[in-house]
């Protein structure tokens, strides 16, 4: 079961989440697993439908964005400028179903990548906040 709630487990704040999940290779594997799950699992049907026919562009952009977001190189900003997440996602219909499916799918991908639970919990808490902020449709 994926938990998205404040946690009290101590975390090593001297090392970025990016490094704690395996740096560039760990992040690539996480993003690949996330989109593979989205593409394969019927539980994520609504989320998958928001992405169009191909996931290739989304895979690349999420990897670039998460690199900087998690404390690694700012790859997204160097290529595209400020993320402007809400504005860039306005063309997509995002409600609570899509928000929840995104977070659950990422949680499953993190579990599959054996990301330690305290790190996973903190990252999912952060992701939930961003995903909730991205909603542009009331359900």
From TrEMBL:
InterPro entries: GlbO/GLB3-like, Globin-like_sf, Globin/Proto, Globin_bac-like_CS, Hemoglobin_trunc. It holds the Pfam family Bac_globin. SUPFAM superfamilies: Globin-like. Its cofactor is heme. Keywords: Heme, Iron, Metal-binding, Transport. PANTHER family: TWO-ON-TWO HEMOGLOBIN-3. Belongs to the truncated hemoglobin family. Group II subfamily. This is Group II truncated hemoglobin. The lineage of its organism: Bacteria, Pseudomonadati, Pseudomonadota, Betaproteobacteria, Burkholderiales.
């Amino acid at each position: 079961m994926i938990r998205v709630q404040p946690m009290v487990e101590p975390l090593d704040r001297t090392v970025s989440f990016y490094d704690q999940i395996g740096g560039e290779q760990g992040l690539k594997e996480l993003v690949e697993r996330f989109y593979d799950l989205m593409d394969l699992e019927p539980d994520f049907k609504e989320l998958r439908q928001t992405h169009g026919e191909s996931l290739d562009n989304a895979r690349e952009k999420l990897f670039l964005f998460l690199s900087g977001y998690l404390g690694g190189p700012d790859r997204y900003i160097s290529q595209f400028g400020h993320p402007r997440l809400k504005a860039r996602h306005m063309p997509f219909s995002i409600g609570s179903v899509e928000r929840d499916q995104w977070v659950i799918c990422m949680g499953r991908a993190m579990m599959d990548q054996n990301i330690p639970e305290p790190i996973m919990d903190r990252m999912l808490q952060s992701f939930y906040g961003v995903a909730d902020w991205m909603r542009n449709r009331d359900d």
